[in-house]
Write a structure and sequence with these properties.
By secondary structure, the chain is α+β, with helices and mostly antiparallel strands. It has 2 domains: 141 residues, 2-Layer Sandwich (Fructose-1,6-Bisphosphatase, Chain A, domain 1), CATH 3.30.540.10; 117 residues, D-Maltodextrin-Binding Protein, domain 2 (3-Layer(aba) Sandwich), CATH 3.40.190. The chain is 31% helix and 25% strand. The strands form 4 sheets. It has a 7-stranded mixed beta sheet, with helices on both faces. Strands 12-14-13 form a 3-stranded antiparallel beta sheet, with helices on one face. Strands 1-2 form a two-stranded antiparallel sheet. Helix 1 packs antiparallel against helix 2. The longest helix has 22 residues.
């Protein structure tokens, strides 16, 4: 059953990529949503396509789609598809390459498969629980090496293009990561892809604002690569919540460095607001 769902998800991703690339750098209508994030015509076109495909193929599953009004009906479903039609809409609007299509499938609150596709760079990775992760560049599969722990003073942190110094200076300093130790990218999907490929080694999301659609696909991929994915307290991330957000942030780090990193972060729990 999961193999069938994965094959379906890959077909949907291929078509979503084509829609996005047909819209990229071609002139777009864009507007601000209530949370001041950008939504473009490309977001909405991909959203409508994916919504329709899932409803036809799996009518008994729930759907959580960033660009579709949420309903509580999904909370009653065992299986849930989580969709971010265009992660990094502002970067897409600017003609940059660091934007993604994200698709995942969750059962009973646990992510079972995920796809991150960055169509402008040709990068794509997918994984299903217990079956490993597969990485492609422009359609060619690339053999992935085992991820090994990196000393803290050599770590690169996946971080947004614009560095929020007020919030993260102390945190990164305590982890031994200077400003030169950033791998910047414009969306969470790209950052999780960077960590899964070893181009970065850590993500600290000290925030409540990430949606489940931002992290669910990367969650299963990173775990299949031997990485730990938790909240910033080391707690389990759950999906298909009534309020589908990262209520206690997110931490992605090599499993062997998890305890040390959590111990370092603990000193900030009372002083820096999530």
């Amino acid at each position: 059953m999961m193999v069938e769902r994965l094959e379906f998800a890959l077909r949907v991703t291929e078509k979503a990529n084509k829609i996005l690339m047909g819209r990229w750098r071609s002139g777009l209508e864009a507007k601000l949503k209530a949370d001041n994030s950008v939504v473009t015509d490309a977001d909405l076109e991909v959203s409508a396509f994916v919504q329709d495909e899932i409803q036809r193929a799996y009518p008994n599953d729930g759907i959580l789609n960033e660009e579709v009004p949420d309903t509580r009906e999904r909370l009653e479903k065992i299986g849930l598809w989580i969709v971010d039609p265009l992660d990094g809409s502002r970067r897409f609007q600017l003609g940059e390459v660091d934007f993604c299509f994200l698709l995942s499938y969750v059962e009973n609150g646990v992510p079972r498969l995920g796809i991150i596709s960055e169509p402008a760079t040709g990068r794509m990775m997918y994984a299903a629980g217990g079956q490993g992760a597969h990485y492609f560049r422009y359609g060619l599969e690339i053999k992935l090496r085992e991820l090994r722990p990196v000393p803290r003073n050599k770590m690169k942190a996946g971080h947004p293009p614009y560095y929020n110094r007020r919030k993260y200076d102390q945190i990164y300093d305590s982890l031994g990561i200077g400003i030169e130790g950033f791998k910047r990218s414009g969306c969470m999907g790209s950052r999780m892809l960077d960590v899964a490929t070893g181009e970065a080694h850590l993500i600290v999301g000290w925030t409540k604002t990430l949606g489940e659609w931002d992290v669910a696909a990367g969650h299963v991929i990173c775990e299949e690569r031997g990485l730990s994915v938790t909240d910033i307290f080391g707690g389990q991330l759950r999906y298909n919540q009534p309020e589908p957000r990262t209520h206690s942030g997110i931490l992605v780090v090599h499993e062997s460095l998890k305890r040390e990193t959590l111990d370092t972060l603990a000193q900030f729990y009372g002083s820096i607001r999530i």
